[in-house]
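Feature request, filed as a ticket because there's no other form

It would be nice if the structure record came with a short human-readable summary line next to the tokens. Right now we just get the raw output. Example of a typical job, pasted below so the devs can see what we mean:
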Amino acid sequence: MDFATVIYRVLSWLKHRLTAWNTGGEGIHSPYLFEWVRMVMSDKHSYYCWDSIEVCRQAMLADDRELEFVDYGSGKQQGGSEKKRVCDIARKSLTKKRYAQMLYRLVNWLGESEIRAGRVEMREERGLTIVELGTSLGVTTAYLAMPDSRNRVLTFEGCASVAEVAEENWRKLNVKNIQCVVGAIDAAVLSRELSCVDVAFVDANHTYAGAREYFNVLASMVHEKSVIVVDDIHYSSEMERAWKEICEDERVTSTMDLYQMGLVFFDPHYWHRNYRMRL
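Raw output as currently delivered:
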């Protein structure tokens, strides 16, 4: 990472810390989004499977195996490969624990809200379609999949050797509702594999063009209760520009900037506002 990038990220983080707020939902005028903040962001309860997922994370951080690594995420390589240790990949790419656990609560809350809203008549009929762009070692994927085994999680990973390690982790965790698609991710692949999305977590190509392309494809598949989560929105000036344009998209009703990631809502009951908050 060059010096200019370091300075950019430090200034971006300071700006967020000085302007973001979190009062447990107070000041959020939409009652629906207020409930989301209280039940997802401010919930401090732990869940039964979190410890086992975190054991898996620690194992990845200590794993010295070398993999043939192909990186599509930075936009710098076009299929070129290099040797990388699993522990180095884990340190760089795994979503921080508090954000991954927030994603778990998001999936759990959205599944329950499907019943409350009458979208399904019985709890047994519940099942969300969740898509993740950028599987990495599968730790965040497990957080997305384990709230309910009836949910379908479709995750995309560019590097085959990394996907193999992720699948090892899912077997250890006994998670069986994940399907992994290996290869470069583009609009054609997404359109072929998906028709409707309840939750999407975008952590793949960290470029302006990649973020905009992925958002546009996913936004064509959402309904009013869907949530798209974009990771690393302050990774670079490119990603910040993509995030600002997403916030201004006419299909979007509200957004929430948590610094590490941004959440995009499409529910017309939400007031049109772009929130900047601390998790």
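Something like this underneath would help us a lot:
The first strand starts at residue 66 and ends at 70.
The beta strands are 66-70, 81-85, 129-133, 152-157, 178-182, 199-202, 227-231, 254-257, 261-265, 273-276.
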